[in-house]
Amino acid sequence: MSAALAVASGRRWLGRFMTRQGPVLLVLEEEDRSAVVERLDALSGGLGIARLDAEALPLQFMVQQGVAVADAQGEPVPELVRHIQEVKPALIVLDPFRRVHDLEENDSRVMSRLFTGLRRLAAGTPPCSFLLVHHLKKASEHSGGTLDRLRGSTDIAASVDSLVEVTGELGNLRLRHAKSKRGPTQGEFLVLGECIDGTASLRFAEVEAKSSGQRGAVRAWVIRTLAGSELSLRGLAGAAKVDGYGRDRLETVLRELIEEHLVTVTDGHGRSHIHRLTEQGLALRGKMDATASPSAAEERSAEEPVGGE
Which of 65, 108, 204, 299 could form a disulfide with 155 if both were Cys (CB 3.0 to 4.6 A apart)? Predict the structure, then answer.
């Protein structure tokens, strides 16, 4: 939906990727109309598009209409061709791909005929692009990269121009651009998002930048937590879990802090090890307090010009 909005409004997708503005035809077979309207309102609000303006965008929806894009021979059905001729879309979204055909997706010859027909439609006048939402195999059914994980015949992965694997949860998605016939792939990146008062905003983020930011947050959390406590790894991990920090990242950060002589470890009961701040760690904790104090903030504010750039 976010990509469709970007194309219909002529904006950059995720604030980064250029789009060619034009009408969009969305064939949605899993969500009901109320869910589609709710998502459209949230995403358009996140882009700063007023509701009346969003309703005026060149978006046409076909929601749970049992649309079939191909006949038993894999040829495009007349209904789809007619819609394309009427809407003249720049983008056609098929979500999910498996619900818009009754063909055997594991048969390479059948899938080859289906994609041959879709390519003919895409190359028509005016030309358009298809965005197919397709599912991955279960983890137990594959071994390999994204191309191997795609459900169905390998001809599906071979037929598309570009392939993006999406994992994670809405708000913190990881995307891997695994294939591109028309230029270099974008590698891995993140789509971060937040929903406030029914408005959803999505943005692009580099994997490394997100990882670095999380590591810094965990470092600060450990130093603050150990400032008034002496905790075992188990105790720290339990507290970190409550705040949303995983044990693996916690252990990595603890090793860094120990190597930097900010945290020291001593033997506890049984096999446990007790973590506490060193004098250097306590001094750093004091600097963190000073930086975050209201007086320090007021001093910085007083030095800055009113209004800024």
Answer: 108
